[in-house]
Amino acid sequence: MSSPQGTRVLVLNSGSSSVKYQLLDMSDSSRLAVGLVERIGEETSRLKHTHVDSDATRERSGPIPDHEAALKAVAEELAKDGLGLDSPELAAIGHRVVHGGQSFTAPTVIDDAVLAEIERLIPVAPLHNPANLTGIRTAQALRPDLPQVAVFDTAFHTTMPESAARYAIDVATADEHRIRRYGFHGTSHAYVARATAKLLGKAPEEVNVIVLHLGNGASASAVEKGRCVDTSMGLTPLEGLVMGTRSGDVDPAVIFHLMRVGEMSTDEIDTLLNKKSGLIGLCGDNDMREIRRRVDEGDEQAQLAFDIYIHRLKKYIGAYYAVLGRVDAIAFTAGVGENASPVREAAVSGLEELGLAVDSELNAVRSDEPRLISPESARVAVAVVPTDEELEIATQTYALVGSNTRQ
Fold it and tell me: Who contacts 186 (Cβ-Cβ below 8 Å, separation ≥6)?
């Protein structure tokens, strides 16, 4: 494998039927191109590519049979802009990998042993790791000489103490089946925690932050001096907050009850809790904008769904306040966290004794920039910090393989 000579990093996020990508120049962290290939394997496949400098967007439709064809199509679009994968400016390809278990605590250059371990973890990430592996292997085939780096969603959370990571079940059984809290959305939590510290004019090691990543999937983390000490998602992304289609926390005996009394199969319960629960199960919608529209029109079912969502969110804020002991800031991020001002207001309403409040005028402002929405007098800062997982992946990738470039 050759040493990286350039400053560009291609970030790939390979899903089961999609590939999201961004090409960044790490000399100034600027984006050169962004795109999405979706519905891979279908007749209606689509690729949307944007060349950032020219603000030109191209789309192509038609069958893209597999990930190899998808990445070749991406390479063709990049080449049209003079940004091809054969460019000497390309230093590495960074891959988002959802589950790294306990094995991977940092970004890792991919070799055969790393691939084998990611594959071994498929039973605890059956929806994600296979797609991530497909993307990696396809990229390796296209550029076998280029460093490929895995950046793991779970890595940021590996700093949790055992008291937070362990479930209270038989230790031997837990160890045999690798059952523990791993956490997810780690690249987002890492980026937002660091960006929040910067917003406060402090180093990450100086602040304690509760990060609330609220999208269709949602998770919370308690970050103490730059290190995660607790997070809401667990063995899988199902645990924790109420989400778009996932239940979040439920009594485990609900599963036994549904099997015995409801005569539901394991697969049916899996589908219920992952795809037919959360907001969509409560009110038939998983889009917070639509739910808020219904709430404003007096829809009681939508109001109940919103109230349950907020109740769970407040519980985690309070719990993580207790875990940290001192909180300097709470940061809202991701689609709902960044855009739904009623969610932010409701989440901290009534928590004034904890030093939490939002300024209604500041909270109503929409912006792509990190910003404070709490009154100047508030003891705890409340922030909105747009997440940037692709930049985080690129930053970690380049930090690992780009040292030769900077010499």
Answer: 152, 153, 154, 155, 156, 157, 228
Spatial separation of the C-alpha atoms in residues 82 and 266, rounded to whole Å: 50
3-state helix, strand, coil in the chain (%, to 5): 40, 20, 40
Amino acid at 10: L
Q: Can you give the pTM of this predicted structure?
A: 0.91
| The two three-digit tokens of residue 133, written as one number | 């592996």
Contact status, residue 25 vs residue 107, Cβ threshold 8 Å: no
For residues 329 and 249, give the distance between their C-alpha atoms in angstroms, rounded to a whole number: 25
Q: Strands 208-214 and 329-333, how do they pair? A: parallel
The single-letter code of the amino acid at 140 is Q
CA atoms within 13 A on the CB side of 104: 27
Are residues 316 and 241 in contact, defined by beta-carbon separation less than 8 angstroms? yes
DSSP 64-98: --SHHHHHHHHHHHHHHTT--TT-TTEEEEEEEES
- Per residue in 215-242, pLDDT tens? 999 999 999 999 999 999 999 899 999 9
Q: What is the secondary structure of 211-254 as a DSSP string?
A: EEEESSSEEEEEEETTEEEEES--SSTTSSS--SS---S--THH
- From residue 69, give the alpha-carbon distance in Å to each of 53, 96, 122, 134, 209: 26, 19, 24, 12, 42
E strands of 80-217, at which residues? 90-97, 108-109, 148-152, 208-214
Radius of gyration of the chain measured on its C-alpha atoms: 22
DSSP state of 380: S
Calculate mean pLDDT across residues 255-280: 96
And the tokens for 365?
Answer: 């402002």
Q: What is the mean pLDDT of the chain?
A: 93
Instruction: Write out pLDDT tens, residues 289-344.
Output: 999 999 999 999 999 999 999 999 999 999 999 999 999 999 999 999 999 999 99
Question: What residues are annotated to the active site?
Answer: 153
User: Could you give the CA distance from residue 108 to residue 105 in angstroms, rounded to a whole number?
Assistant: 9
